């Protein structure tokens, strides 16, 4: 583990990263954009999404009310699927109305965050886990369902992930039991462990960070 830590600076959980103010709407929207696409594709789509709101300075993420006011057709021009455009617009409406807020999510426990957000259309367990990790900077998040984490962990313990994929399919890199047993050794800092497992296989998480 030491070589990984020495090679990669984890800015997300560094003092400067933890001090940054995070926009929960941006974080959750970025999670939706990143669902079931590569890191490179997510980065491209997010860039096009920001370009739709060109009046905003730099890479500033639009306010929920701005997104809620756009049509689904307009949002789709950024490369979003019909459903993802609907999910992000619906999420924007919840933040614009005050049904969801940064303070509410900040004050909620991990279980409360999961319960409240899993009820939002378009936010599954993985998306909420990514938000808890990157948006709320919770230190003990671990996603068993993240393929990049699974690949990284398999490689970390010395398995040949290319052979495992050809033999068993994409979900056979490592069992959930093996992942749990290994990750539990790093509690209550499993978010950090997860971040370093992404680095093992060079998984791009920049869209969510």
Automatic annotation (TrEMBL):
Residues 33-202 form the HhH-GPD domain. This is HhH-GPD domain-containing protein. It comes from the Eukaryota. Pfam families: HhH-GPD (PF00730). Keywords: DNA damage, DNA repair. SUPFAM superfamilies: DNA-glycosylase (SSF48150). GO terms for molecular function: alkylated DNA binding; DNA-3-methyladenine glycosylase activity; DNA-7-methylguanine glycosylase activity. It comes from Cylindrodendrum hubeiense.
